[in-house]
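Hi Y.,

Following your request, here is the sequence exactly as I used it, all 71 residues.
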Amino acid sequence: MASQAVRRVFELRPRGDDRSRVVASLELQCGCPLTVEVAEDRVVERPDGERFVVGKFPCPAGHPVRAPSNG
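Below is the corresponding structure, written out as tokens. Let me know if you'd prefer a different format.
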């Protein structure tokens, strides 16, 4: 199963009483949605307020990783 980078973060919410983990609703680079539990320190916020999740995640549909387009 190919691992994809995150294209967009839809939602981040705490995981119950464990503040070191969050539940993240994401869109992968292949376009597939994914909801996954991640360590809170993998969530990074840019100065403009945009948040992203560091790392790669297996595509649930098994899409291959494609090289980024130049246009």
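The chain has no helices and six strands.

Thanks again,
Q.
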